[in-house]
């Protein structure tokens, strides 16, 4: 927790300011919002394939697949689906992890899921896998990106291509930043109010997504 103590205080002190900035200046709507909502709303559906299709579509609409020769690329849907099928039971269990009461076995479970997902064609897994996990288990897995999350927390956007190290970074971000912020009682009350007002704050789908929104709001010029 010490590594992010200043960042935690920054978000808690400026939560309302960053939230207002996010919704005043950030315009992520259209497919990115639609498929985000559809993926999250179907995470406990019996129609698991449809849920995965929404997750896959959400990642594509979030910029994880670029047309043309350059940019990030996702694997074919079948490859993604097959990787998820091998960890399907673990994902079902992870849905009910309480971040404020997380246990050692929960971390092992999340690690198995993180390492089992194959969604990006590149060797870097942290960004794509965290976003996939967020849409399958949004209460415990935040979406991580370079421009906002990594820059805000670490001051750089570097990722060393190493699956074990990438998981350790994700665990550090969840345990050292997201959970302490989510566990603050005043912030929790704010988050509940925002989530209840979906017409005005449609991106406030979960507590972890709100924290992600605040990070973005803190970096909007």
Question: Can you describe this structure?
Answer:
There is one protein chain. With 221 residues, this protein is mainly α. The chain has one domain (2-219). The chain contains twelve helices and no strands. α4 packs across α8 and α6 packs across α7 (104-116). It is globular. The model has no long low-confidence stretch (mean pLDDT 94).
Brief sketch in words of this structure:
This protein has 221 residues and is mainly alpha-helical. The chain has helices at 5-13, 15-25, 30-41, 48-64, 77-85, 88-94, 104-116, 126-136, 146-154, 163-182, 185-195, 207-219.
**What fraction, in percent, of the residue positions are helical?**
55-70%
Number of strand elements: 0
- The unreliable regions are none
- Give the strand content: under 5%
- Rounded mean pLDDT score: 94
Oligomer: single chain
Terminal CA distance reads 28 Å
Radius of gyration: 16 Å
* Backbone structural class: mainly alpha
The largest β sheet comes out as: none
- The outline comes out as globular
Domains (count): 1
N-to-C SSE string, H for helix and E for strand: HHHHHHHHHHHH
Give the secondary structure arrangement, pairings included.
Elements (H helix, E strand, L loop, with lengths): L4 H9 L1 H11 L4 H12 L6 H17 L12 H9 L2 H7 L9 H13 L9 H11 L9 H9 L8 H20 L2 H11 L11 H13 L2
Helix pairs in contact: 1-10, 2-12, 3-4, 4-8, 6-7, 7-10
Features:
single chain; 221 residues; mainly alpha; 12 helices; 0% strand; globular
């Amino acid at each position: 927790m010490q590594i992010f103590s200043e960042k935690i205080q920054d978000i808690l002190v400026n939560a309302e300011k960053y939230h207002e900035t996010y919704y005043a200046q950030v315009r992520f709507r259209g497919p990115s919002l639609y498929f985000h909502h559809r993926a999250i709303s179907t995470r406990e559906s019996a129609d698991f394939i449809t849920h995965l299709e929404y997750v896959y579509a959400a990642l594509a609409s979030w910029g994880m697949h670029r047309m043309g020769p350059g940019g990030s690329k996702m694997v074919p849907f079948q490859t993604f689906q097959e990787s998820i099928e091998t960890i399907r039971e673990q994902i079902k269990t992870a849905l009910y992890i309480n971040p404020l009461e997380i246990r050692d076995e929960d971390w092992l479970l999340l690690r198995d899921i993180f390492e089992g997902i194959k969604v990006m064609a590149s060797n870097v897994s942290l960004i794509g896998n965290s976003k996939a996990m967020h849409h399958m288990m949004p209460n415990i897995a935040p979406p991580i990106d370079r421009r906002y999350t990594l820059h805000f927390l670490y001051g750089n956007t570097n990722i060393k291509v190493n699956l074990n190290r990438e998981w350790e970074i994700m665990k550090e971000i969840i345990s050292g930043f997201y959970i302490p912020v989510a566990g603050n009682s005043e912030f929790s009350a704010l988050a509940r109010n925002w989530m209840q007002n979906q017409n005005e704050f449609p991106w406030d789908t979960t507590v972890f997504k709100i924290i992600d929104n605040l990070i973005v709001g803190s970096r909007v010029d």
